[in-house]
């Protein structure tokens, strides 16, 4: 794991925590926009686990969906096949 990935992941987790502290009414909208933006602004998917955590903290996603989300992330990272990540992002935005 390179240094850029680690820094990006730490930054994403901090940002997710900060967003979860704000009003729950706007959190879902903000995170949906973030999902769309991070798909084009960032080369790696390390932002996605932080967004999943933020959804969980704002009660917009259940624990079982959170585990499913991470399972897709892990499978995408291990296989290098990111089709599942795009399907997952679309599913999360629809919540």
TrEMBL record:
Classification via InterPro entries: Aquaporin-like (IPR023271)
One Gene Ontology CC term in the entry: membrane
Coiled-coil parts of chain: none
Lineage: unclassified sequences, metagenomes, organismal metagenomes
Chain segments annotated as transmembrane: 5-23, 29-57, 66-87
Protein name stated in the entry: Major intrinsic protein
Membrane topology annotation: Multi-pass membrane protein
Keywords: Membrane, Transmembrane, Transmembrane helix
Cellular localisation: Membrane
């Amino acid at each position: 794991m390179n240094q850029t990935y680690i820094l990006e992941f730490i930054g994403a987790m901090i940002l997710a925590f900060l967003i979860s502290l704000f009003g729950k009414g706007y959190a879902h909208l903000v995170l949906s926009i973030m999902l769309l933006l991070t798909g084009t602004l960032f080369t790696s998917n390390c932002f996605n686990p932080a967004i999943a955590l933020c959804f969980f903290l704002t009660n917009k996603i259940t624990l079982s969906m959170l585990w499913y989300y991470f399972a897709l992330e892990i499978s995408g990272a291990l296989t290098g096949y990111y089709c599942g990540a795009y399907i997952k992002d679309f599913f999360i935005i629809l919540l």
